[in-house]
Amino acid sequence: MTSIFDQYEQASQVSQKVVPASEQMTSSGYINMQLEDNTPLFSKQRMNFNPSDLITHVAVASDYLVLAMANGKLFRMDLKMPDQQEEIQYTKIIQPNSRLTAIFLDPLGYHLLLAFAARNKDGSPELVYLHRKSTKLKSVSKSRNYEVTEVGWNYENRSTSTTGPILLGTSQGHILEMELEADSDKMFTASQQYWRQLPNYLPLYGGKEIDGLIFDIGKGTDTPITGIQFHRVNNTSKYFIFVTTPTRLYQFIGHAMISDDKPSLQSIFHSYLTTPETGFQEIPSTLKYSKLQFYFDKSNEPKTFAWLTEPGIFYGQLDPSSQQNSNSLFTQGELINYPTDKGAGKESTPLSFVLTEFHALVMYSDGVKSVSLLNQELVYEDRYNSEVHGKLKNIVKDSVRRTIWAVTDKAVFRYKVNREDRNVWRIYSDKEQFDLAKLYCQNNPAYIDIINVKQADLLFTKGDYEKSAEIFAETQSSFETICLKFLEVHQINALKVYLSKRLDALTDDDKTLISMIVIWMTELYVSQLASLRRSGKDNSQEYHQFQSDLEVFLLQPKVVQCMQHVKSVVYDLLSSYGDKQNLIKLTVINEDYENVVAQHIYKKSYQEALNMLQSLKKPELFYQFAPVLMEETPTETVNALISQGAKLSPSKLLPAFLSCENDDKHASEITRYLEFMLQNFNVKDKAIHNYLFTLYVETDKPALMRYLSRQGRDITMVNYDVHYALRLCRENGLSEACVTLSALLGLWEAALELSLQVDISLAKSVAAMPEDVSLQKRLWLSVAEHIITKNQDIKEAMQLLEECSLIKIEDILPFFSDVTTIDHFSEPICQSLEEYNNQIEELKLEMEDATKSAECVRNEIQSFRNRSVLVSVTDVCCVCDIALLLRPFYLFPCAHRFHTDCLLAQAQPILAPARRNKLTDLQRQLAVLSNVELSTVTSSGLPLREVLRSEIDDIVASECVLCGEHMIASIDQPFIADQDWDRVMKEWE
């Protein structure tokens, strides 16, 4: 359990948290809701254990904690299993005059190095190794001459038994390369240890080479090394090394010698032996210490670094793969000042710090503060009660688990980082790094809107109006406000960009705003084009660009759809500017060709109107404008109509034809079109034929007779109204046409009477038309009566007898006058008597043939009465192949024989429904009626049983089922039914 002081301290952290002053952002269209997260960036929790003595040193890696205490013991604990704790005495292996100066734990948490320094001249520095799985301390004997102050671990090492190549920094400024293996004790003897002294970094000292000088960054001044980090560059053999002293940051980069998958880092320094001293950053300091920290991204690659010095923290972005500056491995290096309290002077230099992605958590003896790496503001402060916990000793970070640990004399605290990137977007926005701000705003639409508004305002201030308009269109800022901003500075192009972007973002439901933007943008384009035309720049590149932009705008799907609702407004707008070219283009885009054609007709450009109509697939426009065009240019209009062929309906053009002047020119052109349609497309519309008939009656009589001839003499096949045609012809006195039409209607007497008034040959043709012989004879007699009564010409009457075989001399004799003598008719009378005689002889022959046929039939009937057939005992039924005499049977003249029941089964499916029902009813009566009822004598003199059986025989045995009419009718049916096919196929297999 934590003490009451700890609880008070944790509860007071919220009130101690420093809230960064945020600049008032430009307002956006979003509702002003609470955007800040009030959760502290860092929350502290004390570890629930009490060390046995005061803590002096700490190391944490991969959730493994190691503490060194004043009583000479090491405390080790796996943070995943807090119950497993142990203490190890480390003073037994070291010399009495040595003191512990630092402990180092590798990133895996398995290899621990303890560095000791001499207390006085009698002691010597020492390095001790301890493995996680062991309690045995091992002295690295070859390091006795070096006081190790820093260890550069191999972050690529994944072995728990060996450290891999590592770098050691000493208090004299020496850098050593070594590797330790936990399982081999020989590794810790002076002769077996893997140990290399790196070559001298400064071979030239004082103008001459110093023999035997080992790697000495301090140039012989015993400058301690305070930090070492080395890492591979992108999985290559290239490595970079950072080394720090209290005043300098050195950078080395080069290719390491790889053997057995282990790098030899000494080769990296070879390229620096013959070059002047370069590749370091120097910051003056009076301190004896400094700290170097790296921040690793999620892929475990170093991303940033920070170097704690007296003036401040030198911070930069790591970019070892960049070749822009071969002398530096980092970019954007800057010195970050330490945080200060309000109303107080400058703070003293921190004792230690850890680096996160966006903050540096610095440690003082009495507390911890966090400063933003982006804007150098104090964002967190935590004071410690030294009376309860003691002074802070160190703050360290688990680079693998990304946890932060602070250690006092008496306690260990863990810091949790709570969404430290929550305000990064705002800081980048304040620094005008808008792309980075959007990257860290976590896709929050309110944050993105604030960033966009600020970026757009900045671009507007700088005069980059079009880019500003593009970004303003992505914000929720007031539409009217943004439009006014660009109008006030007369930036029409930028305004068009803004309107275009807003239009793209609108949905189909925003019809009102879409309509407004479309009309406004069209007006802006047209206004600019009109201004250029007035200034004589209609052939300039600027004019063509505006024209092209307008055409692209009008072709956008959303604009095309909107134009269907606002086209009248846009047409009026274009007309007001006199922009006929774009007006025509717009009507073509909108497929609103009616206005284009109407304008051509208004300008009396009839041929252009016809050309436009012919180029379109809009037949309704022909129907609309045909009346005017037929009136003005009949020939050209008819040519255009003929070119359309079946695309146009002649019946829909009738109003246009009827509205024309009734002169010969218009009538001939209309007739030409109608004749073309009838001849090529077989138009059968009665209205068209009636109108053409009318034109023929009024203008072309010969064409009328040809038309009647083509239509034929079948009233059901003609396409015109015969009654209307007859009335029209009568009104116009067309007797010949009236004869034809009367005959077509069956008014034979009227047709003949009228034809006799016109021409005798026409009358004869009418008389020959009827198919009814009696009617035809009556008409011919009328013709004969007319000829004889009018002319009394016996010769002509005799010719009429030759033309028509239906009338005889005796039929026309009554038409002659009483004074006419018989001598004139002797020849026709004799011929008529001879024909009668021939007919009598033919009738006699036919009677003799009929008598002979009747005799033959009587003979055949008599022969059938005496005919018999023998049935043998070996005969079988044609259906069941069982002896025929076993059951009642039927015997047919064709010699086929069937049992009664077999024949019933075969005949019943092929009977008609009525006969099948009749058969079923007869069988039911035989089965149901009693013997007394069946024995009743019917009116025919036979018992009812015999009558029923006789009727059954008539139905069943009317024909043979194997050779009768049914078998012939079913010749196209398959032998095997579809439903039996599968069964039969299986039987044949």
From TrEMBL:
Any single GO BP term: lysosome organization
Coiled coil: 830-867
Domain Pep3/Vps18 RING C-terminal, first and last residues per copy: 875-968
Gene Ontology, cellular component aspect: HOPS complex; late endosome membrane
Alphabetical keyword list: Coiled coil, Membrane, Metal-binding, Zinc, Zinc-finger
CHCR repeat windows: 641-796
Entry membrane topology: Peripheral membrane protein
Location(s) in or outside the cell: Late endosome membrane
InterPro entries noted in UniProt: Clathrin_H-chain/VPS_repeat, Pep3/Vps18_beta-prop, Pep3/Vps18_RING_C
Domain (Pep3/Vps18 beta-propeller) ranges: 40-417
Keyword Membrane part of the UniProt annotation: yes
The family this protein is said to belong to: Belongs to the VPS18 family.
Matches recorded under PANTHER family: VACUOLAR PROTEIN SORTING-ASSOCIATED PROTEIN, VACUOLAR PROTEIN SORTING-ASSOCIATED PROTEIN 18 HOMOLOG
Protein name: Vacuolar protein sorting-associated protein 18 homolog
Organism this protein belongs to: Pieris macdunnoughi
